[in-house]
């Protein structure tokens, strides 16, 4: 289980005219990862790929503007989509026809959106004009005579709200009368009156502060009140026009919803098809597809190809060790698979790297449970996680996380039985011990969990070297780490801080192990005559020193198991203390007590559960993964047509 899926490198040779049939067989097979051919220099599909990429971007914009949504969370049974059939006899012709259809839909939608934007702009301008007229009406200013003064220049304009204070200071020392009033979130109304002599100077100041003169007021040939009524009538007409346009856009959304989703899917499929064709090696009549498939599925791959191509293909496979680094596909039993999500958060293992998921499926719930040890709270997490995993049908990530949550709840249930605690109360005799009465013992137990997990990390590091056939590294790097760490912990438990005991022998054993840690690999390199001795020695001194300094902090980090368990207990104790105080209140005391107990427990489950989950992640990622795991693998991405909204029917003749 610690190994990733074993891959075989596969080469499929077929006729060029059968290429689409071959890709269809690979899609049906669903477990073939296509590799870029080293000798493939064909760029004949680049233009059509770029066209499809543009069509895909256009579809995303249309779907966003029309607010076409696929439910992000599907409960119970999902919505049934009627899949649209696409009959494919030539992918190139299909791609061109789809691009044209997308362009036509885009033009229709853009026309409606443009009209809506223009209407919104008119409404905004009319509302701004009405607001300014209302302000002028308050001061009994007739907008029709603003430009008729001989010796006075009047500016009616708007400016950004952030500039009103600065503009006010700039005008304060000049012979002007000015007034500011905010008209919306961004801009403010500004009225400035000055002499004709100072008009140009004032105008330059206004331009400096992004002041925009408001046009059209001079054309108002009636009083402000009458002009406002006229604008309100115009606004009603524009609002009705906007509603008609919104209704039209909604109708376009309903009309094209299924079509847009299916077009987006078929465009992605066509794009993947042409990228796959671009990646393979071709001659005038022959095509060669190179990729990876699971070793256990080679017979099934050959069966799919034979059903489609009959005998018009040749399949070569190499099941032996592959020099290149194949893509990684995890293989774990179904009960363990949810924890692959956590592994992938850090990164996929390389092909010749141990998969930590099986071990983490055990340690993650147990460490979480020890920090969250409560029978009642664990039962709620367990049942809630199971319930959501059955109720939620998509997205798959939510179902996966629900299963992880259920496993963590199960860990908390086990710890609750060990501690005899439920909902912060002792409800049964502890099967093991009460951590709050045996704090030091539980602290030592927490640290020993760290010792076992860190040691397992060193063992996995050794396994990784063996898988890569780097036996010298396994024996001279990983093994000394294990011996040093286990020996140091053993003597620390036996001698503690008694220096006389340390000097009686244990310290000399540690010195020998340290010498092995620092000098084991350099001596081996020197004896075998391989590698640069000085470089290897520098590497071992640096890595060994860093290891010694980090081991203490890594081990002590597991004391957080006790700390978070105490925090869990303290929060619940506080909840019950407060509820006990409010229970003495007349009339509402009992109700308030129940509300605080229920609310407090819900808060502890949510808040403490989140904190514990984060710290459990940290212990695994930082303290454990750092000892053996690189997580630099390439994801196994099988060639497969998406057919959630579409049904692809190939009509290419054999």
Structure characterization notes:
The structure is a single chain. The protein has a domain of about 80 residues. It is built from 18 helices and 15 strands. By secondary structure, it is an alpha+beta fold. The relative contact order is 0.13. Helices cover about 60% and strands about 10% of the residues. The strands form 5 sheets. Strands 1, 2, 9, 10 and 11 form a 5-stranded antiparallel β-sheet that branches. Strands 6-7-5-8 form a 4-stranded antiparallel β-sheet, covered by helices on one side. The protein has a two-stranded antiparallel sheet with strand order 3-12. A hairpin with a 3-residue loop joins strand 9 and strand 10. It is extended and about 110 Å long.
Question: Can you give the helix content as a percent range?
Answer: 55-70%
Give the end-to-end Cα distance, rounded to a whole number of Å. Answer: 42 Å
Please, what is the average pLDDT?
89
What is the strand content?
A: 5-15%
- DSSP strand count: 15
Number of helical segments with 4 or more residues? 18
Main β-sheet description: 5 strands, antiparallel
> Strand pairing plus helix content: what structural class?
alpha+beta
Low-pLDDT stretches: none
Q: How would you sum up the global shape? A: extended
Measured on Cα atoms, how large is the radius of gyration?
Answer: 37 Å
């Amino acid at each position: 289980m610690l190994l990733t899926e074993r891959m075989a490198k596969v080469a499929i040779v077929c006729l060029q005219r059968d290429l689409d049939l071959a890709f269809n067989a690979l899609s049906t097979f669903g477990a073939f990862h296509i590799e870029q051919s080293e000798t493939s220099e064909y760029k004949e599909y680049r233009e059509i790929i770029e066209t499809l990429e543009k069509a895909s971007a256009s579809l995303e914009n249309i779907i966003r503007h029309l607010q076409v949504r696929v439910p992000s969370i599907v409960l119970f049974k999902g919505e049934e989509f009627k899949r649209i059939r696409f009959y494919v006899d030539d992918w190139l012709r299909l791609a061109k026809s789809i691009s044209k259809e997308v362009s036509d839909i885009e033009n229709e939608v853009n026309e409606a959106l443009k009209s809506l934007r223009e209407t919104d702009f008119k409404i905004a301008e009319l509302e701004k004009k009405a607001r300014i007229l209302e302000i002028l009406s308050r001061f009994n200013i007739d907008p029709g005579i603003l430009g008729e003064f001989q010796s006075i220049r009047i500016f009616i304009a708007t400016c950004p709200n952030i500039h009103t204070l600065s503009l006010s200071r700039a005008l304060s020392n000049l012979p002007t009368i000015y007034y500011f009033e905010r008209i919306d979130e961004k801009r403010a109304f500004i009225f400035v009156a000055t002499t004709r002599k100072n008009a140009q100077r004032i105008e330059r100041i206004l331009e400096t502060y992004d002041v925009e003169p408001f046009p059209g007021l001079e054309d108002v040939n009636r009083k402000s009140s009458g002009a406002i009524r006229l604008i309100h009538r115009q606004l009603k007409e524009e609002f009705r026009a906007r509603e008609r346009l919104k209704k039209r856009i909604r109708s376009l959304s309903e009309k094209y919803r299924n079509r847009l989703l299916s077009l987006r899917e078929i465009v992605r499929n066509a794009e993947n098809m042409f990228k796959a064709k671009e990646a393979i090696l071709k001659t005038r009549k022959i095509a060669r597809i190179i990729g990876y498939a699971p070793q256990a599925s080679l017979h099934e791959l050959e069966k799919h190809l034979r059903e489609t191509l009959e005998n018009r293909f040749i399949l070569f496979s190499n099941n032996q060790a592959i020099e290149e680094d194949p893509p990684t596909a995890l293989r774990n039993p179904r009960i363990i698979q949810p924890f692959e999500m956590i592994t992938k958060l850090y990164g996929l293992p390389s092909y010749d790297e141990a998969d930590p998921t099986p071990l983490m499926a055990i340690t993650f719930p147990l460490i979480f449970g020890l920090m969250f040890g409560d029978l009642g709270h664990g039962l709620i997490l367990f049942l809630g996680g199971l319930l959501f995993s059955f109720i939620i049908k998509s997205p798959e990530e939510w179902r996966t996380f629900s299963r992880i949550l259920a496993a963590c709840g199960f860990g908390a249930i086990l710890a609750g039985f060990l501690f005899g605690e439920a909902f912060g109360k002792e409800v049964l005799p502890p099967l093991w011990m009460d951590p709050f009465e045996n704090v030091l013992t539980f602290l030592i137990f927490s640290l020993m969990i760290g010792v076992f997990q860190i040691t397992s990390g060193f063992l996995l590091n050794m396994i990784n070297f063996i898988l890569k056939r780097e036996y010298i590294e396994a024996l001279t790097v990983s093994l000394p780490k294990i011996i040093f760490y286990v020996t140091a912990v053993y003597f620390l438990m036996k001698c503690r801080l008694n220096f006389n005991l340390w000097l009686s022998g244990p310290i000399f054993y540690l010195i020998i192990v340290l010498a092995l840690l620092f000098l084991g690999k350099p001596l081996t390199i020197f004896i075998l005559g391989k590698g640069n001795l000085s470089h290897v020695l520098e590497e071992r001194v640096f890595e060994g020193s860093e290891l010694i300094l980090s081991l203490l902090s890594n081990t002590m980090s597991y004391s957080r198991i006790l700390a978070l368990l105490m925090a869990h207990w303290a929060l619940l104790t506080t909840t019950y203390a407060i509820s006990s105080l409010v229970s003495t209140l007349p009339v509402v005391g009992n109700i308030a007590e129940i509300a605080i107990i229920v609310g407090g427990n819900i808060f502890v489950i949510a808040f403490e559960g989140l904190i514990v989950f984060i710290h459990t992640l940290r212990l695994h990622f930082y303290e454990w993964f750092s000892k053996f795991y690189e997580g630099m693998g390439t994801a196994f991405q099988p060639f497969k047509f998406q057919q959630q909204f579409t049904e692809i029917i190939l009509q290419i003749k054999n």
